[in-house]
Amino acid sequence: MCAQVLGTEATLQVFGKLGHETGVKEYNALMAICIEKARGSDDEEVALEEIHKAFTLFESMREQGFRIEEDTYGPFLMYLIDVEMVEEFHFFGRLIKDDNPSSISRLGYYEMLLYVRTNQEEKIRELINHVACHDGEDKYDLAGNYLLALCESDREELLHFLQVIDIQNISSLDCLTSIFTSLGKLKLDVLAEQFLLLLKDHHDRAEHVTKFIFDYVAYMPNLVVEDVISKFRSLHEKLKVKPSSTSYGSLINYCCASLEVKTALDIVEEMCEAGFSLSIEVVNAILRASDESHDFNLVHQIYSMMHRHNLIPNTDIFRSMINLSVRMRDFDSAYNMLEDAQRMNLAPTSSMYNAIMVGYYREKDPHRALMVLKQMEKANVRPDCQTYSYLICNCNTEEDINKYYKEFKRSGLPVTKHICMALISAYAACGQFEKAKKVLEEEGVLVKGSNEIKSVLVSALASNGQICDALEMYEEFKQDGCNLEPKAVISLIEHLQSDGQLSRLLKLLEELTDRDFWLDGCYRVLLYSVRFNHLSAAVDLLKQLKDRISNDEMAMEAVFDEVFFSIAEETTLLQMGFDLLQVIKNDLGLAPSRKVLDVLLSACVSTKDMDKSILIWKEYQAADLPYNILSFLRMYQALLASGDLKSARIVLSKMPKDDPHVRLIIQESQMVYAKMASEKKTEKNRITKGRKHKKSKAKK
User: Which pLDDT score, from 0 to 100, does residue 677 have?
Assistant: First the structure.
């Protein structure tokens, strides 16, 4: 903090005057600040000045006799590598070698990284050849560090290096792990198996072979979980080794990370059959994955599995299982688990009851939620901050808010950000907006996470109809240097939906740096642009979207579908939809989906626009989309509605009519749309006759 305000040189002087000893930890912290400032500056002179300060600190450390270890030189070398300052890197590297000769092997890692980053292939080959010919004691330590750097880049030189080095002599497990992950990425089966066989016969490495097998298969590209498991098993069989509890655990975690919970449970059974014990860590990973994948119903299978394998759950496991039961509305099972915990002499916790309480609130059942509070009192379980935040947040009256807040105050619990956010949300929902703002002034300044609290205030104001106040608060917080949560910006975009707000919405969108939140915000602003007929803005946003998710065709298609669905809801936007169709084809170089064309054709039915329906009909062929029964029906209806009965009969003659439901729709369409066309024709004739009558009277 002191260095951020005073600067590094002044901080050292202050430490000296105060008698504060400047140790390695302090020097490293000061150097980290210099490097951070250098990275954050776009001004080359400022960056060089910060690097000079870091070097001065380094010299000061040497003068005071401190040994220069990797914690000190590592971040500095990484910065020099990132900005490709080759001469400075070598100068600094020589000083480190002179000061700490034992660091030579580790410096090899950074040197190889430098040549990889600057693409100096000749230098890379020199280092590889140096190790191949080197017979010193540090040969394999140096080789291991070179390999680590090459593995991070997955360069072809890695293969050459592996062919000139004896993998059995590499002592670093981290290095061996990196080698096998790189071999997996490159799908080098033959080389991987060769190395695994060598390590299997090495007395110090044999026990780790099963881990290396996992490292290899887990990083192979374009494999689904089932294929990874199959490869894992086949390699163990081929090498005649058995998986260890560690490799089984890694495989289970891999399945959980991929949200393949059922597969993870199968691996658990296989692991237990092999004689290994089920651990709390494994169960926790599976429960988390079940929650993330919404496989709540698997909680019973998980609980049964624990019983079968004699694993006693702890309080965290019970809380997670209660939460999963509640998420699938199985409150009976949640209470049964609560009773089971007590039978196992585990004291029930507030977090267990909180899981049930929030479930009832989620189900809009406040009466049962409050019953949970009484059950906590009966069980002598004190409500915690989370309990009170749930109670306050779900209050419908100011009186109830004050009641639970007073109870919270009497409890002696500390004010947390969750309490502040609950108060803000509750007051705003009750229309007490000034009181919601006062929470920030009176309580929010005392707790950590003030940015989150301010973000909730902005969101609460916006979502409760106070969009002007929300925008004002947002601008005020920005001027104070506060970086609000992306959710607050999304809330502003969501509720700023009146006409004339496009420029403000685009500015808000620029505030979003997180990819997922930006995509969400862009989608909302895009729909706004379409709704209010801002074609150029919509086109620009579509182009930005394509740049961001160009590799995800399904995501782009989903965006287009939603945009055109919004057009279908407003018949006045048909021209806008037709213009966007041309943009998709001509500017973005993409083919429209069937859904897009179906939506536009439906809009033509509503607007009775024959010309556009014919143009869209041709787009199916241009997009190589064969006509199906739905497109035939929509085109038939569009032609009937526009009064082109002759063309309608032609489409009808080509339409499959085997399905009785199709025949029924045809009959109803003839009744509805033919009548509309007849009325339209009658009205047209009436207008024509009226005009002729007026002309004849004028002549007389």
Answer: 57
Q: Which amino acid is at 349?
A: T
Cβ atoms within 10 Å of 501's Cβ, excluding its own = 17
Q: Is the pLDDT of residue 179 over 90?
A: no
pTM of the model: 0.73
Q: What is the 3-state secondary structure (H, E, C) of 44-101?
A: HHHHHHHHHHHHHHHHHHHHCCCCCCHHHHHHHHHHHHHCCCHHHHHHHHHHHHHHCH
Residue-wise pLDDT tens digits, 97-145:
888 888 888 888 899 899 988 888 888 888 888 777 766 666 777 878 8
DSSP codes of every residue in 139-175: HHHHHHHHHHHHHHHT-THHHHHHHHS-GGG---HHH
Q: Tell whether the model's pLDDT for residue 568 goes beyond 70.
A: yes
Give which of 127, 8, 110 is closest to 56, Cα–Cα: 8
How far apart, in whole angstroms, are the C-alpha atoms of residue 455 and residue 450? 8
- Cβ atoms of 643 and 609 within 8 Å: the answer is no
Q: How far is CA 78 from CA 83, 228, 419, in A?
A: 9, 34, 42
pLDDT digits (tens, 9 = 90+) for 366-421: 999 999 999 999 999 999 999 999 999 999 999 999 999 999 999 999 999 999 99
Distance CA 477, CA 490 (A): 16
Backbone φ/ψ region at 340: left (φ over 0), alpha (ψ -120 to 50), beta: alpha
User: DSSP for 196-242?
Assistant: HHHHHTSTTTGGGHHHHHHHHHHT-TT--HHHHHHHHHHHHHHHT--
Smallest Cα–Cα separation from 635: which of 680, 671, 591, 603?
603
What is the distance, to the nearest Å, from the Cα of residue 676 to the centroid of all Cα atoms in its chain?
50
> Is the CB of residue 372 less than 8 Å from the CB of residue 357?
yes
| Close Cβ partners of 591 (under 8 Å, ≥ 6 residues apart) | 584, 585, 623, 624
Q: In Å, what is the CA distance from 573 to each residue of 243, 259, 612, 672, 680?
A: 62, 41, 13, 23, 22
pLDDT above 80 (res 660): yes
CATH 2.70.98 corresponds to the domain 552-700: no
pLDDT at res. 12: 41
Can you tell me whether residue 373 is helix, strand or coil?
helix
- For 534-560, the pLDDT digits (tens) are 999 999 998 898 888 866 777 777 888
